[in-house]
Amino acid sequence: MPDQPDHPGQPGEREQAYLLGLRLGGKKVIVIGGGAVATRRVPALLSAGADITLVSPEVTPGLEDLAASGRITWLARAYQPGDCAGAWLACACASAHEVNEQVARESDAQRIWCVRADDAGASSAWTPATGGAAGVQVGVLSGDPRRSASVRDAITSELSAGTISARHWRTRRAGVALIGGGPGDPGLITVRGRQLLAEADVVVADHLAPRELLAELPPDVLVIDAAKIPYGRSMTQREINELLISHAADGRFVVRLKGGDPFVFGRGGEEMLACLRAGIPVTVVPGVTSAVGVPTAAGVPVTHRGIVQDFHVISVHVPPGDERSSVDWESLARGTGTLILLMAVNRLGAVAEALVRFGRAATTPVTVIADGTMPTQRTMYATLENMERRVADAGLRPPAVVVIGEVVTTAAELAGLARDLATAPPLVPPAGGGLGGGLGRRVNSGGNDGRKGRDGASVAVTRGGARGRAVPRRGRATRWWNAARGDPPASRGSGSRS
Ligand SMILES: C[S@@+](CC[C@H](N)C(=O)[O-])C[C@H]1O[C@@H](n2cnc3c(N)ncnc32)[C@H](O)[C@@H]1O
Predict the structure, then answer these.
(1) Residue bearing the CA closest to ligand 1, atom 27
(2) Residue with the nearest Cα to atom 10 of ligand 1?
(3) Segment 129-158, tens digit of pLDDT
(4) Which residue out of 208, 265, 368 has the highest number of ligand 1 atoms within 8 Å of its CB and is therefore the one to mutate?
């Protein structure tokens, strides 16, 4: 609801308003005038529980509806002196200046606050631009209604996004929130996750959580690094559970900020069990799992109509054949579904060996995406038979998601098209015309002109057809393309920085 129109004597120019929240429940509010201004103001007054009497010979259809449903009292006549009697607040919204003046005069005489729609300077009260988000009501007065509204919008949108800290102090949240922070890009946490993070007293963060968000927390928030760095320093799960429980038991609102989704290989279930068993309430906020979010962000569709109908997410924290592994590699190998491997970088040789032994083609295309969604993201293409060596050559390190299956060919096609669109000059048909592979140009794929590259891990791409699309030759997995997003030359055997 906008505040008063521009007028000499607005807030800020002459005197400051004393901002107050009126609790109008059951209290009489008189509204004079039944036009657009009243139509905008009455709903907010009703939300505050005001007992509204509207005086106007004519009203808008919206106000008429409210009167017909008994939510307001409508006196269908012109204003008469004495109408303000018994009111706590008067809203002078008549179209005639003189009427508003009379209402203001009567209100003043009876010590009733009066908001005048036509003359802010002559008003004893001003209506701020109001809004609300995350359980917070915001009112802004600046003397310029549009400015007030835009400040209000800025505040409410940041509140909604959780980028403004909105911690409760009186009725504080309690317990633990297990929040999935998404794969790493701070923009990929959910709005709900961000809102709860903004209310945290204590944040226990994993190393794969979007740690940039921690910098935005107020200085008094206790941030605990629970990094579980593979082969590195780590806090045990037991220590983490104890931390969550002890801080929450002391009345603090604890956010457990995790990478991806808390329940996808995230031990979120264990943490929730431990908290609930200790009598600590737990809220779970889903996150974008790296299993799907990282391939998607890298342009790798995990399903594709006509190619594959199923995908399987597998933790390779123990290799195939290990007695602790419960994964049925044989059935995964025999199927055609996309395989998405997490925690696999150091076990790729064993994975390839098992899949090929159980029936997947050694030439099945593979893509490895490291540091997905982060500025350091790298994408590399290979095949089952050479993925281990190519990852080692490229120096790819965890965290990485490995995608195995025919969808990778589609990913290469998508990457090629996107890259062409961004960088290629307009396609000129070959002299003499003609279509098809024979006459089409080969797309230079970052130093590899489309010939079979090292280890066969490249694809010939031709431009064919009237629209000049880049078309990898499908179904020939040993000859597929490694040109995603500015790959260095294929001879280096490494992938792109994107
Ligand atoms: C312990 S699991 C946690 C998965 C997480 N709960 C999720 O839903 O994404 C850690 C593994 O997730 C994958 N991962 C997580 N974040 C990643 C990222 N930004 N880029 C690539 N892989 C990632 C890696 O395979 C990593 O080893």
Answers:
(1) 343
(2) 343
(3) 988 887 788 999 988 888 999 999 999 888
(4) 208
Determine the Cα–Cα distance for residues 387 and 406; give it in Å rounded to an integer: 15
Query: pLDDT value at position 210?
Result: 94
Cα four-point dihedral sign 482, 488, 490, 496:
negative
Residue whose CA lies nearest to ligand 1 atom number 22: 400
**Could you give the C-alpha distances from 420 to 213, 214, 406, 481, 491, in angstroms and in order?**
34, 38, 22, 14, 21
Ligand 1 centroid to residue 259 C-alpha, Å: 7
373 lines ligand 1 (CB under 6 A): yes
Which mutation among 211, 290, 374, 497 tests ligand 1's pocket best, with the greatest number of atoms within 8 A of CB? Answer: 290
Question: Contact at 8 Å (CB) between 430 and 369?
Answer: no
Per-residue pLDDT tens over the stretch 362-388: 999 999 999 999 999 999 999 999 999
What percentage of the chain carries pLDDT values higher than 70? 80
Rounded to an integer, what distance in angstroms lies between the CA atom of residue 139 and that of residue 463?
Answer: 59
Amino acid 176 reads: V
Q: Check: CB of residue 383 under 8 Å from CB of residue 415.
A: no
Ligand 1 binding pocket includes 342 (Cβ within 6 Å)? yes
Q: Kindly state if the Cβ of 118 falls inside 6 Å of ligand 1.
A: no
Q: Note the pLDDT tens digit of each residue in 416-451.
A: 898 888 877 766 666 554 444 444 454 443 333 333
What is the CA 19 to chain-centroid distance, rounded? Answer: 34
**Number of other CB atoms surrounding residue 230 within 10 Å:** 13
- Taking CA atoms, 474 is separated from 18, 383, 412, 458, 462, in Å, by 72, 14, 10, 12, 11
- Per DSSP, the residues of 355-370 read HHHTT--TT-EEEEEE
| Three-state secondary structure call for residue 266 | coil
Q: Bridge partners of 31? A: 54, 91
Largest CA distance in the chain: 95
d(CA 380, CA 402): 10
What is the distance, to the nearest Å, from the Cα of residue 296 to the centroid of all Cα atoms in its chain? 15
